[in-house]
Fold:
Amino acid sequence: MIKKIFLIGNPNVGKSVVFSRLTGVNVISSNYPGTTVGITKGYLKLREDKVEIIDLPGSYSLEPGSQAEEVAVALPRDFPRDQMVIINIIDATNLERNLYLTLQLIEEGYPLVVCLNMCDDMKHRGIAIDTAKLEALLGTPVVETCALTGQGIKLLIERILEAGPGQPQRRSSQERWLKIGEIVSHTQRLTHRHHTLREMLEDVSMKPFAGVLIASAVLYFSFKFVRFIAEGLIASVFDPFFFNIYQPVVSKISGLLGGEGFLHHILIGELLNGRIDFKQSLGLLTTAPYIEFDMVLPYIISFYFVLSILEDVGYLPRLAILLDNFLHRIGLHGFTIIPVLLGFGCNVPGILSTRILESRRERFIASTLISIGVPCVALQAMIVGLLGQFSGFYIGGVYLVLFSVWLILGVILNKTLKGFSPELLLEIPPYRLPQLAVFMKKLFLRIKGFLIEALPVVLLGVSIVNILVFFKLFNFVSGIFAPLIQGLFGLPKETVIALLIGFIRKDVAAGMLLPLGLTAKQMFIAAVLLSISFPCVATFVIMLKELGIKDFLKSLTIMIITGLTVGGVLNLAILR
Amino acid sequence: MRRNQKGKIAEITGGKALHERLMVMGIYVGREVTLLNHSMFRGPVAIKAGRSIVALGFGMANKIIVDAE
Structure:
């Protein structure tokens, strides 16, 4: 009886999309190799049985190259053959390269079904594949699918049961390519086609000069677009909701609670001139939802909207080529740009996706740099909110400082850490038009993820602060750190609390700076410190898990030293 | 090699590990490849092997010796 089905295939062939189709479980899929770095499980009903389906990270062969690939190879190897089936997903537009892994799987004697995915794209590109012949030559069932639209998935499910264990055999890699050449020449027919517009675009965005121009334009417009959407959402949806609908409701609750007392303090917070101020009251029902929904959520939506487009189109690997040279100076290669961009959304997926990098050294540098120099979108939204009241100049300043720190620290790490940075070896996917349904699903998944993960922590953070403030415990804490904060950073001692809360969540911490009445310079320094000093607890846990205790402590030390240095230097360097 | 020039890979110098990594991506001795792009300052090189486009670091690309057509 079949108990498990493994989805195996080269990177970026659409394994995760097939997985979503088979199980109904939504997982994030993008157009670059290495989107999936962990394993996802789901279930499929096969006849009367519930079978577990496992989505694995992509791999080019059964000899793994990175940590993510290792998982893909090890898992099916250790499972009894008679209780499993492997669905080998193949990119039909690139039959030849994909067959290498297929042959390896057949040679190992795995029970196999081959899923010829992206069949729709194949026709655009003038490729025709004789599926029946391919099936005969491979000796395994072959099913044509287009997972994005769901075409062929039903047939795929039906044919899973036809898979049976094969005879193990041995081939050298040279022999494998010879065999592949033979198979391809018998099954694939190419019609010659002229260069399409898409192919021209694919070429030009990798050219050194034009590529840099395109990259600058793409990044500039992405940034503009993120702000445009977020500000639009705030002005037309969230602000009206909070001020016209929500404010009267909480005012009523405040009145019912009598305007003071412990419960009022926790839920509503302080009243300013007898009124609720969403930015300063600091209550569970006032400031907490205001920060999350009116200040942060709009940016989450717009950021992931733009990022998802760039991902699905397939632009990011091209950006990786252009930035490769530059990133090598800090011990990383171009592909690191993908973890970094993900880190701008939230550091946690950013650090997780460093699994696509080959060496420990790279992963250490990348994780450390992400947690120090890449503020998550929640914090960025707050920085925009906090510093925007002074001038846009300060917002730009924060990015400039962070970027410089990132650069200097990267160069230092690269020079001091043993080892060398491996070279880039990356497959560049074709451009694809994002599919609306898949795109919306992914956006929805990410926003939902944010709400589920962030909201409880935010409420917890605000509660802790409120209880501490109510019992006047903060004076004690801020007294201890006062010399450091006042002397070194030139900040009032109350900022200590905000910086400490930064450990729980950065956006709440930034929100706590609002009632303090800081000057522009102080706000600027506090914002920079919040980004570089300590990672929030979620990032903290993930770094510990990914790096191990020793490297994690090393990374933490670097963060603290960097924070102290940068804060001190900024305090001395900025006059007002 | 110049841009958009085709050629057959004659030799891949360098270790077994490099051979293996390139091999599984479809880059091996005897394979016909097209050079797509150099970048400036010894940056990565994009080549086309079969239907896939692969970007390689400069040092890696230097180890692939091609008989240009």
In short: Residues 6-68 of chain B form a domain with the SH3 type barrels. fold (CATH 2.30.30.90). The beta strands of chain B are 6-12, 32-37, 45-49, 52-56, 64-68. Chain B has two helices and five strands.
